[in-house]
Write a structure and sequence with these properties.
By secondary structure, the chain is of the alpha/beta class. The protein has 3 domains: 66 residues, Nucleic acid-binding proteins (OB fold (Dihydrolipoamide Acetyltransferase, E2P), Beta Barrel); 157 residues, Rossmann fold, CATH 3.40.50.300; 63 residues, Probable gtpase engc, domain 3 (Ribonucleotide Reductase Protein R1, domain 1, Orthogonal Bundle), CATH 1.10.40.50. It contains 6 helices and 13 strands. A 6-stranded mixed β-sheet has the order 10-9-8-11-13-12, with helices on both faces. It has a 5-stranded mixed beta barrel with strand order 1-2-3-5-4. Strand 4 and strand 5 form a beta hairpin. It starts with a strand and ends with a helix. 39% of the residues are buried. The structure holds guanosine-5'-triphosphate and magnesium ion.
């Protein structure tokens, strides 16, 4: 049977919307072809290039994933399996907000670790119209010092939107962040034709209500192509060894070779230069705390994923 090349726009309960030559097909996965030995909660995600066979009309069967450049993945605790959030992108835009929801640098830290090497990360602090306290500014300045790009924006006033557009122009960009930070709102300002659903914040908890439920790849227009993703409370990093986590913390670089013990994991070993730097405030204590937590969760996942 003839195989056609297409791109995944979105996937819901293992039914995928696949676009090929401007036509949308509703596809399922054919048999067990895609069940690789690694058991994923969802083996394919928005942005994946696939081959599929047309069954009848606009229904099809996906037979293979092709040309995969990278993925953004996380461990899905509820499903007890890894999950792919998006595939084949050039930029991850990590959206945060200063007060509602409150700024959570630990979320940013996890995104920075989860980001594949062959993509760029842009940290966007949206909702700057709600004000910025010094603490948030300091943390953002630190990310900049580490070499990450940081941008202030407001979907409400339009501040920073031109810079954001410039950054993602001609590159496929995945927008990630906690629920309610304004990912879909920003995308609607960049591309009003997308007309994405935007949600109210919960008054009680000052956080979003998970308005976007599935990752969706947009079409490309005015050189903008984006993947909107559902807000998540946490990115449980998946797919790296706990012992390698240190290399993902750029601010640890000058210390990791100064520890007394070779192979120091910077968790419990005596005379650890990283721990000392955190105590001395040379490394932000919160970054070290992030490291410890991610290290711990990577160890736990290693135990569950065999
Ligand atoms: N003041 C202010 N409010 C904003 C801004 N951007 C978004 N909002 C509001 O924040 C709320 C949540 O926005 P969404 O765009 O739905 O947030 P989201 O990140 O897509 O949320 P999920 O889809 O749940 O992950 C809405 O009430 C928006 O109007 C902004 O820059 N300033
Ligand atoms: Mg949304």
């Amino acid at each position: 049977m003839e195989e056609i090349k297409g791109v995944i726009k979105t996937g819901i309960n293992n039914i995928y919307s696949v676009e090929s030559d401007g036509v949308l097909y509703e596809c399922r996965i054919k048999g067990k072809v895609l069940k690789t030995e690694k058991k994923y909660y969802n083996p394919i995600a928005a942005g994946d290039n696939v081959l599929f066979e047309i069954e009848e009309g606009q229904n099809g069967l996906i037979t293979a994933i092709i040309d995969r450049k990278n993925t953004l993945e996380r461990w899905n605790n509820k499903r007890n399996a890894p999950q792919i959030i998006a595939s084949n992108f050039d930029v991850i835009v990590c959206v945060c907000s200063p007060v509602s929801p409150p700024f959570r640098p630990r979320f940013v830290d996890r995104v920075l670790v989860a980001a594949p090497e062959n993509c760029e990360v842009l940290i966007v602090l949206n909702k700057v119209d709600q004000g910025l306290d010094e603490d948030v500014e300091d943390r953002l300045a630190e990310y900049q010092e580490m070499g990450y790009e940081v941008l202030l924006s407001s979907a409400e006033t339009g501040e920073g939107v031109d810079e954001l557009r410039e950054f993602i122009e001609d590159r496929r960009a995945v927008f990630t962040g906690q629920s309610g930070v304004g990912k879909s709102s920003l995308l609607n300002v960049l591309r009003p034709d997308l007309n994405l659903k935007v949600g109210e914040l919960s008054e009680k908890y000052n956080r979003g209500r998970h308005t976007t439920c599935y990752s969706i790849l947009s079409d490309k227009k005015d050189d903008i192509e984006v993947i909107d993703t559902p807000g998540i409370r946490e990115i449980e990093v998946f797919g790296i060894k706990a012992e390698d986590l240190q290399f993902y913390f750029k601010d640890f670089k000058n210390y990791i070779h100064e520890c007394k013990f070779t192979g120091c994991t910077h968790v419990h070993e005596p005379k650890c230069a990283v721990k000392q730097a955190a105590l001395d405030g040379e490394i932000h204590p919160d970054r070290y705390e992030s490291y410890l937590r991610i290290f711990q969760s990577l160890k736990e996942i290693e135990g569950k994923y065999k």
